[in-house]
Design a protein that fits this description.
219 residues; alpha/beta; 5-stranded parallel sheet; 32% strand; globular; LiaF-like_C; DUF1707 and DUF2154 domain-containing protein; DUF1707_SHOCT-like
């Protein structure tokens, strides 16, 4: 008995809501939540709960409900809209350091990525870059502290910049400009609510190869 061969059906396309979320998608959702809290649309507890869900989300469909009841910032497209991902941020996956009623530390000899998300809720996060290996010139750290603390320490011979807000809390970045134009640049952005975000150089800590290059240039 001959059986007719059925034509192979093409694979069904993935539904937009099932597309894997990128780091840029998560960051833009976090920006919407930050604006909403600053405007009084979310309480600190509601904001902390949603931000935690943002960085745990795996798909675009998981992100959209977190801002469905909030307006998008003026001039910004809603990042969770299917297919509208916008421009990607720095290349490579982000490192996520999360401390909820706990502590999280990254220090020692480690290779720092182009972007790190640090989130502290009734906890503390420490990001120590004094012995880190920089694989790129620009490193961005997105720091959020709610009733907690995020501390960033950098070598004295790199450039350090930042921008953020403290809401009943402290956001402080000790700006540095390296004498070497090729030195790594660390940018710390974010905000704190009843907490603190602090970024500053660690005295006596330097990136050795930068010291040697600068000494040759001046010598």
């Amino acid at each position: 008995m001959d059986l007719e061969k059925q034509p192979q059906q093409p694979a069904a396309p993935v539904e937009p809501a099932g597309i894997r979320a990128s780091d840029a998608d998560r960051d833009r959702i976090a920006d919407i939540l930050r604006e909403a809290m600053a405007e009084g649309r979310l309480t600190a507890d509601e904001h902390a709960e949603r931000v935690d869900a943002v960085y745990r989300a795996k798909t675009v469909g998981e992100l959209e409900p977190l801002v469905r009841d909030l307006p998008a910032p003026a001039g910004a497209a809603r990042p969770a809209t299917p297919g509208a991902h916008g421009q990607e941020g720095p290349v490579g996956p982000a490192d996520n350091l999360v401390a909820i009623f706990s502590s999280s530390t990254r220090k020692g000899r480690w290779r720092v990525g182009s972007r790190t998300n640090a989130f502290a809720l009734f906890g503390s996060v420490e990001v120590d870059l004094t012995e880190a290996l920089f694989g790129q010139r620009l490193t961005v750290i997105n720091a959020t502290s709610v009733f907690g603390s995020v501390d960033v320490r950098v070598p004295e011979n790199i450039s350090l910049r930042g921008s953020g807000t403290g809401i009943f809390g402290n956001f402080e970045v000790a700006t540095l400009e390296s004498a070497d134009p090729e030195a790594p640049v660390v940018v710390v952005n974010g905000y704190s609510v009843f907490g603190s975000v602090e970024a500053k150089p660690k005295r006596g800590k330097f990136i050795t190869d930068l010291q040697e290059r600068l000494r040759k240039r001046l010598g």
